Amino acid sequence: MDPAAVTASFDTLTPELLRQRGSLKWTWRPGTLGAWVAESDLGTAPVVTEALQQAVADGTLGYLPPQLAQQVATATAEFQASRYGWQVSAQEVSLLPDVLSSLRAVLERHSRPGADVIVPTPAYMPFLTIPAQHGRRCVQVPALKDSGADGGPRWSLDLEGIERAMRDGAGVLVLCNPWNPVGRVLSAAELDAVASLSARYGVTVFADEIHGPLVLDPALRHVPYASRPGADPALTFTATAVSKGWNVAGLKCAQLIASGGARTRWESSPLSRHLEMEASILGARAAVAALSPDGVAWLEVLRGYLWGNVGLWSQQLAQLPGVEPTRPEGTYLAWLDLAGTRAAASPAEHLLRAARLVVNDGRSCGTGYESCCRVNLATSRTVLAQIIQGISQAVS
């Protein structure tokens, strides 16, 4: 793989080409700039493409065979060990269609029945709506915000607020790390504090680490919550996937990692085990390829490109009066507060109307974020420049 060629392929992308490709991101609102749903415009690793093409050529498009599922579990365990120093066994890895199906299973069958669900906000939108679908109340705990090293906002968990919710009887904490949509990469100290609270109050932690491969800041690294010494295995479920790092979300193959008591409970549930039959054979092939040395090498090029996009985003938007961009440390999603502009009342609607730019409405990420929006930065520099220009013109 030639890193320069990969980067050059990223730079060729234009809105016209992306619309022709027909992704959800670029076809939902025809004629607009797509910057909303967490799809990347930057494609996937060549080794993943080759694996999928071979599967089509071979006609292996049926159900997932056990030996391939085992390959995914083994590759996942080895990646966690080599990348993050987290030692897990392949036997502790289950395949599921996606992260949200694993959250649903944890709420339905592997946590205290009816107990409230704590969700730090701003949050990935479905985390706020899924609890009610399982007879649970969602307890929003707004994040704390202070100034980061770059002068922009930096978000952190409100540990006192989380503890209050646990003390009041909540039974599950949804922990998103790296944190969609604010882009924080949680520190070991923060994770240790969460683990202490979980153990003290007997609260299950559902750790969504789907963006773990996408830590962009070179000074930081992803720390799996379950790798911390205080994280109780009986109270911990970790969900991950290659779907964001390698842009294969449509292939439906996520991984649930559970050990100790959590693994025992998972294995004892026929309904949870049945979910493992719903993972896709193509998704499994993509996962094995993505986690190979060639797939990881491509990921490194992608991370560097995205970090460059973050720099452009932060530098240019910070100069606009009334605009407060958050500089993401991980993920390719940026959080933007337009409270000081004429777009404050409804940023998503205003940007669509004034700039033909589609972003996620901050109101869908939690109470109190009406002046905010989530913007997808996983695109070419050409498209990113148009996104930034559109925002600048819309708020000036």
UniProtKB/TrEMBL annotation:
Kindly give the PANTHER family that the UniProt entry links to this protein.
Answer: CYSTATHIONINE BETA-LYASE-RELATED, PROTEIN MALY
> Which keywords does this chain's UniProt record carry?
Aminotransferase, Lyase, Pyridoxal phosphate, Transferase
Q: Which cofactor does it need?
A: pyridoxal 5'-phosphate
Q: Which Gene3D superfamilies match?
A: Aspartate Aminotransferase, domain 1, Type I PLP-dependent aspartate aminotransferase-like (Major domain)
The record's InterPro entries line, in alphabetical order, gives:
Aminotransferase_I/II_large, Class-II_PLP-Dep_Aminotrans, PyrdxlP-dep_Trfase, PyrdxlP-dep_Trfase_major, PyrdxlP-dep_Trfase_small
Q: What class of enzyme is it?
A: lyase
- Taxonomic superkingdom: Bacteria
Q: Which family does it belong to?
A: Belongs to the class-II pyridoxal-phosphate-dependent aminotransferase family. MalY/PatB cystathionine beta-lyase subfamily.
Protein name in the entry: cysteine-S-conjugate beta-lyase
- UniProt keyword Transferase present: yes
Family matches, as Pfam families: Aminotran_1_2
Give the EC number.
4.4.1.13
One GO MF term = cysteine-S-conjugate beta-lyase activity
Which residues are in the Aminotransferase class I/classII large domain? 43-389
| Chaperone in keyword set | no
